[in-house]
Structure formats: C-alpha cells, structure tokens
Amino acid sequence: METIALLADGFATSLSPINLMIVILGVTAGLFIGAMPGLGSVNGVAIVLPLTFIVPPSSAIILLAAIYYGAMYGGAVSSVLLGIPGASTAVATTFDGRPMAQQGKAGLALIAAAVASFVGGTISVILFTAFAAPLADLALAFGPAEEFALVLMAFTTFVGLGGDDKLKTIVMICLGLVLSTVGLDLISGQPRLVFGDLPGFYAGISFLVLAIGVYGIGEVLYTIESSRTSPQVTPAKITLSELKAGFRAMNRLWKTMSFGSFMGFFVGMLPAAGATPASLMAYGMARQSSKEPETFGKGNIEGVAAPETANNAASTGSLLPMLTLGIPGSPTTALLLGGMVMWGLVPGPMLFIEQPDFVWGLISSLYTANLAAVLINIALIPLFVWALRMPFTVLCAIVMVLCIVGGFAPSQKMHDVWLIAGFGVAGYLLRKAEYPLAPLVLALVLGPLMEKSFRQTLIAEQGNVLAFVERPLSGTFIALAVLFFALPFIKYLRKSARQKVAPAE
Amino acid sequence: MLVADRVIAVALMALSIYFMVHAVELPIGWEGSSGGPGGGAFPFWLSLIMLLAAGGILARSFLQEGHSGPFFDRVMIIPVVSVITALVVTIALIPIVGAYVAIPLFLLWYLKIYGRHGWLLTAPIVIGTPVFIFFFFEATLKILLPKGVTEPWFFPLYAMFF
Questions:
Q1: Is the CB of residue B101 less than 8 Å away from at least one CB of chain A?
Q2: ipTM for this prediction
C-alpha cells in the first residue's frame, strides 16, 4: 500500500507539464533512433547524453529513460520494414516480421509489435514497481564488502552466462577496469596511469568518452562497412480496419505475451543477458508451445509478439538493479547510471530515502513513457516509412558531428575528443574481432565502485581477506560469482566426459 | 581473420604490459599490516590477468583452425579508412580554424564528395548544423566551442547573446 502512495506522489512529478513534454520528446526521439538500422537504445543514450544538460538533472534522467523506452519500440520498425534489425534487441522480430511485410502485412506487423511492446512494458513496469522498494530496503544492509561481491558477481555473469568468447570477455572486463583506474588514486590521491603526464588523464577517463567513442563513432564505422547499399523500404499503411484486426489478433496472444513479459523482466536483470537473449528465448518458447510451430518464420504474428514483449520487459528489468543496487543490468543502464552520478544522483538504496520524489517520479514516468510510446508509435508509422528512406550517409555524418561536439561539451577539452576518436576506431576493430563491448563499458562504469569497496573493506577489516566470505550476504554473492565463473569449465568437462562415453555424438 | 585475431591479441598484450609498467610507479603490494593493497595494485594485477587472457587467445589461435574469410572486405576498407581520416583531420582542425569551419567542411566532404549527394540535400545540412550547434551549445548552454583564428568573427554574436 505504501508503494501505491509513493507511486501516486511520483505521478504528481511526472505528470507536470514540463516532464510530460520531456517524456513525449524523449519517446519520439527514441522511436526514430531505434528505427534507424544500426542505432539502438545504447547508441541513442550515448549520443544524446551530453545534450541533456539543457534540462534539470531529474528531468534529464526522465528524458534518457524515455529515449531508452522509445528506442525499444522503434527497433521493431526497421526489422519489419527493412528486414534489418534496428538494434540487436530486435533481431528476433525480423524472423516473422519480415515475412509478414513481404506478404503485404507490414502494417499489421507494426501494430502487433507496438501492442506487444506496450504489454511487455506495462507488465514489467508493474513488476518493477513491486520489487523496487523491497530490493532497495534489502540493499540498505549492504556494506562495502557486499558492494564488491555484487560487482564481482555482475562481471562473472558475463563469463558464465554470456554468449561471447570467454577469454575475450575476460580481456574486455580487465581492460575496462584498468581504464577506470586512470587518474588520481581514490585512497591515496596520487596520480597513476597518466601516460607521460598528459594533464588530460588526471581527471580520469569518463564513461561518456568511452561510450560516445564505442557506440557513436565505432557504430558508424561498423555500419558503413556492413551496409553500403540502401535497403528497400517496404511500404506500410495503417487503416482503421487493420488496427481492429491487429487488436483482435493480439487478444488471442495473452499467454505468449504474459510469458514473454515475465521472462524478459527477470532475464533483463542479469548484466550478461538482457534484451537480446530474452527476445530470442521468448521467440523459441512461443514456437515450441505453439500448436502450429511450422508457421513460425513464415509470417506468424505470434513470432512478432513474443520477442517484442520480452525485449521491452527486459529493458525495464535491467533498470531495477541499476536504480536499487547501483549495479546496471545492461550497457544502456550503465550509461544512465553514469549520467546520474554525473548529476549527483547516485543510484542505490540511499537514493530511495534521500530523493524519493525523483525516484518515484522516474518510475511513474515509465508508465507515461510506455503509453506515449505505443500511441506515438502507431500514429507515426507513415513518418517512419519516410524517415527510413533517408540516405545512410546523412545519418552517419550527423551522428559523427554530434559525437565530436557532444564529446567536447561536458569537459570542454579537446583531449576528450581525441580519446573519443581513438576509442571509436579501437571499438570498431575489437567488435570486428568479436570482442564483446558491453562488459568493457560496464567495467569502466563500475570500476571505481569495485576498487573503492574492495580497499575500504580491507582497511576496515584490517587486511582480513576472509571478510568477504565471512559476511553472509557477501559470502553468498562470492559463492555465486565462483559458480558463474566455473560454469564454462563445468560445461566443458561434462561435454568431454560425454564424448568419451559416446564418441559417435 | 586469423592474422587479424593474432595482431589484436598481441596489441592487447602490449597494452597490458604498458599498463603494468605504469602501475608499478605506485605500490602494488600490501600496504603495511592493515592498509590493504596499494594504489597500483588494482591496475597492476588486472593488467596481468588481461595479459594472460590475451596470451591465451594468441596461443589458441595457433592450435585452432582459423575462421575462413578475410578480416577486411577489400572493397570496404577504402570508405572506412577515408571516414576515419576525415574525422582525424576535422578534430585536428578544430583548435586551429575553429569548430564552425571544421564541422561544415567535414559535412561538405561527407555529403558532397563521399556521399555524392546533390546540393539540394547538402547545403541545408552544411549550413543548418552549425547554426543549430551555435544556438544549442553557445546561446543556450553557454558552452563555448573552440574557434581558433575565427574567434574575432564571433564578437558581435557574443554581444548579442551574452
């Protein structure tokens, strides 16, 4: 009951004219960013973050969250109309969305995607509201030892549960953590890793510089290479009868959509998982439990609904650990976390006590963003068809300029602009060589917290390393971290054991 | 692909050794009896893990059959390299001739020469983008972009907005 009262107070914040305008603006911008092939929520948030200085901090976070939300909706648009996923999170949407478009049912597919996103978003925001306060209460008991153990666990999920090469994941985590130590030592205040005493490095490497480099410049370079020719845009028009047909079809899919929402929410909370695997899992489950699995991949509306509910639910799910524990569940929420820290709103349980207006304003804005997104999405479909015809070079040129200017603005140093260019090229090459970039960004954001909590614990416990395992909560996290880290080895051993028994396999 | 994989692994190994060399400038061991690890410990030991993991990637590339296919598509390497060059030239020009010359030049090159678009599309973007940037960053946010030798041109504008 207390939660409902707090939420009602939150609506008083988020329904104020300025915040409502910000939500609508953010969702619309997010829809377009998400709809552009190659650009997803993480690129949108990285590129737009420096521009949000124009509004007060709490509104800036609402704006970024709205962009995040809008981009999750928008991803489906290019999946259906171009057959190219707008972001990796919308890959599963192409499986049935593209065939539907080729059969002349592009409008129906887009309506299905929007409605499914709305259902996924709404169910997950309700779950979010229910879990946020209890989780924040639990997190109040956390000391530095628990913080360290939790961050360690977050990184080991990338090794144990992530789909990428294990060694490459470890390299990226370490690289991010080492880059986060550049600048002045947190405890002794001495400069370290300042590379030939370059004054620019004394301030450390901002997460924003890495994010704009990797997700702005790097993404543009990657897309230049992968899409030289302009793809064909499938026309889509929305009529009233199509809307009705869409809603009727969706009404039969409640089971698929609610399953996708719940699963997406919980998968989204894990740092290594997130929206892409959640949507693929939801697609697979929908096909398995379907009475006619052979129609999947040939334009089944259920194949659009399942991944779209899951990826929206996952994006909400990844906000939960970010806001309550201060541990982001995805690269996009890592950027939100970095932005909040920059504005002095440090996420974590204390935020719920010190800034309840802001926290509940943000949570309630997710409800309004969700509603705004579904309405704007359906209304603007003709505009998307037009926008997707925009030549790719125009988009790339403007993104590059925004990266240069946006990278300069926060610190006003050319040093950071050079770093952005460097990270952009390096990120592009690493991505081509199949190094995962999400753990790199997460490590840079979480590095200072990890080192500080580690060293604080050891100072407080007079150098007793066992302090991390002796405390029950931190001990549990460490045990889970060890398990996640060992998972690939266990799998490997079991596989080789099975191969010995049955060599024919 | 295999060669590129090895080159990147070696580069990452070199980078981690470079980090380690710099990290030892601060204590990397235990600070006294109760102080915990020193300021250089975190970067040093993590760089060591990175070195070992990158070394593992390199070693593995000699044991395994490589992925087929080249790392760079020969047709695509020219556009990527030319965009990177244009980016570097633009950033280098910003402190000298100012953002309001360097950025339109970059857009002009990208749209007209690289993208082969007509003037009807190029001109509005080349002119409109700097105008938007000026009003957004300088007039509204009071963030001044570098202007280099073009600084005097902006004095009348400053007088109007500040």
A1: no
A2: 0.91
